[in-house]
Write a structure and sequence with these properties.
Number of helices of chain B: 4
Number of strands of chain A: 5
Strand order of the largest sheet of chain A: 3-2-1-4-5
Structural class of chain B: mainly alpha
Radius of gyration of chain A: 14 Å
Oligomer: heterodimer
Largest interface: A-B, 39 and 35 residues
Strand content of chain A: 5-15%
Order of helices and strands of chain A: EHHEHHEHHEE
CATH topology of chain A: Rossmann fold
Number of strands of chain B: 0
Strand content of chain B: under 5%
Shape of chain B: extended
Largest sheet of chain A: 5 strands, parallel
CATH class of chain A: Alpha Beta
Number of helices of chain A: 6
Chain lengths: ~140, ~90
């Protein structure tokens, strides 16, 4: 399985009071143990993770450390915003009526030949998955997939 | 507020000080903040063993922060707010 992890999944992991925490913990455990073939996150999703955690906790120091650990401790491939990424993201935002950050997660999944993993707290759950372009979509709430 | 101290005995080469100044201006932050982040990243690799489990990573984040955070709003509330800001709902 090749997955791109969206910020909505990582928020559940870092906040232990979150209702998705246990599922997110199991997923991250598998990533760290090498049980998932490939797992990545985009730098845009990391930025979104930061802003959501700061608004959820009003804790800038904790937010900084979540960002730092996502990039350095979670064994995730961190995908940069290359020209290829920008061009693909621009196209997906033009055709998918979902947020810029959600399109960035789809773009990352597309460029890494994987599927995008969101939580159902995102508005993408309301869209017809088959009509969204870019990559296949999974939801953490359906874990194990 | 975390306790801070001033270290006045640190001397660094001029070219490094100039680089620090350029990076701080580019990042829109202070030189002290750049040094703090660099030191934190360096010490994380040098002092702490690399975490091996999801719980160890989480414990490391709490330890670096100095406390466990309290969630004051639901994630859905934050995302719904974002969608309103982006006029998506």
């Amino acid at each position: 399985m090749r997955i791109t992890i969206d910020s909505s999944v990582l928020v559940g992991y870092f906040i232990d009071q979150d209702h998705l925490h246990d599922m997110a913990m199991q997923l991250i455990e598998k990533v760290l143990n090498g049980e998932i073939e490939y797992a990545c996150v985009s730098k845009i999703a990391i930025a979104e993770l930061g802003y959501v955690i700061e608004r959820k906790t009003s804790d800038a120091a904790f937010t900084y450390n979540c960002i730092h650990s996502t990039a350095n401790d979670l064994a995730l491939d961190v995908i940069d915003v290359s020209w290829e990424f920008i061009i693909a993201l621009a196209h997906l935002k033009a055709v998918n009526a979902i947020s810029f950050c959600d399109n960035a997660t789809l773009t990352t999944a597309k460029l890494t030949n994987g599927e995008a993993l969101f939580s159902k707290e995102k508005e993408i759950v309301l869209k017809d998955k088959d009509k969204l372009q870019g990559a296949g979509i999974l939801f953490l709430e359906d874990y194990p997939f | 507020m975390e306790e801070t101290i001033t270290i006045s005995s640190i001397r660094i080469a001029k070219h490094l000080a100039e680089k620090l100044d350029v990076i701080a201006r580019r990042e829109g932050t202070s030189r002290a903040e750049i040094i703090r982040r660099s030191l934190e990243a360096f010490l994380a690799k040098q002092v702490e063993p690399h975490p091996k489990s999801a719980q160890e990573v989480l414990d490391l984040v709490y330890r670096r922060t100095g406390h466990k955070p309290t969630s004051i709003r639901s994630t859905k509330e934050v995302f719904d707010e974002l969608y309103k800001e982006e006029s998506l709902s």
